[in-house]
Amino acid sequence: MIMKKILTSLTLILIAGSAFAQQDPLYAQYINNPMVINPAYAGLNNNLNASISYRNQWGGFEGNPATINFNSHISLLDNKIGAGLLLVQDQIGNSKNTELQAAFAYKLPVSDGTTLSFGMQTGFINFRSNVNDLNLADPDDPAFLQNENVTKPNLGAGAILKSERYLMGLSIPRLLNSTISTGGLDYQLYNRTVYLFGAYVFYLNQSIRLKPSVLLRGVSGSPVSVDLNFNLNFYEKYSAGIFTRNFNSYGLQLQAKLGEKLKFGYTFELPTNASVGPSFTTHELFLGLTMPTFDYHDRSFSNF
């Protein structure tokens, strides 16, 4: 009963903070490392983790989004808490956002093999824009009279329920309103984005596992975005799958373990004419490290 009240309270806090404006970076491989959208994943797999990813979205489209994400997190104090660091650079057109976040998570055993994690993250987001890179129809537009270089604080929150068979999470990585003033007008840098995701593992046989997952992404003023993923894992080493985002973009996901500690992932996305058209493809690369560091760290294979 207490657990239910905690979850309900956190849900209300997160949704109440969703007054919303510009969208967060997109990630296709979020299920391989939920840390990119939910601070509660910090240390949740009871290991030391580090990863870097690069996403080039809609290649060939002028001013297309490009995102670099580095993050590292570790389980501490007999796997009771987690701590992590997140560094992101996201560029769209003449605008570049750079953020540095520190994450902390508290892990609460719910039952044998099931853990509830609450996470917070805090840090700074730097926003830069260069108006010299734009071809303006109206050079006197007050919104584009000067370059911008503004740094704002950030606070995020999330919760994850995890077992070896399933993973469920709810988060808002950027809770604070971030606005700038230029030309006598106020502009919002970030809209609050709510993430709700879930995944489940089906053991087809001793060697093959099916992992379907879904991600709901909500921003005020926009329809809810839905990602559907279906991945097969072979021999705990190789994964292959397909996914769609709102049924107007489709993709292929591949991942392989390189030895015992490293894993490499690649995603190819093909948008349809309902999006930007199939001429502008998206590529996402991922390299991750997972290794036990302390005696209490987990040394067995984990589905999540």
* Shape designation: globular
Return Rg in Å: 20 Å
- Sheet/helix structural class: mainly beta
Largest sheet: 14 strands, antiparallel, barrel
What count of helical segments does DSSP give? 1
Strand content: over 45%
Instruction: Specify the CATH class.
Output: Mainly Beta
Number of domains: 1
Placed side by side, the strands forming the largest sheet appear as: 1-2-3-4-5-6-7-10-12-13-14-15-16-17
The secondary-structure element order is: HEEEEEEEEEEEEEEEEE
CATH architecture: Beta Barrel
Mean pLDDT: 87
SS elements, strand count: 17
Low-pLDDT sequence parts: 1-21
Summarize the structure.
This protein is mainly β and 304 residues long. The chain has a single domain (2-291), classed as monomeric porin ompg (Porin).
Overview of this protein structure:
This protein has 1 helix and 17 strands. Helix content is 5%, strand content 55%. The chain has a single domain, classed as monomeric porin ompg (Porin, Beta Barrel). The protein has 304 residues and is mostly beta strands. The model is unreliable at 1-21 (pLDDT under 50). The strands form 2 sheets. The protein has a 14-stranded antiparallel barrel with strand order 1-2-3-4-5-6-7-10-12-13-14-15-16-17. A two-stranded antiparallel sheet has the order 8-9.
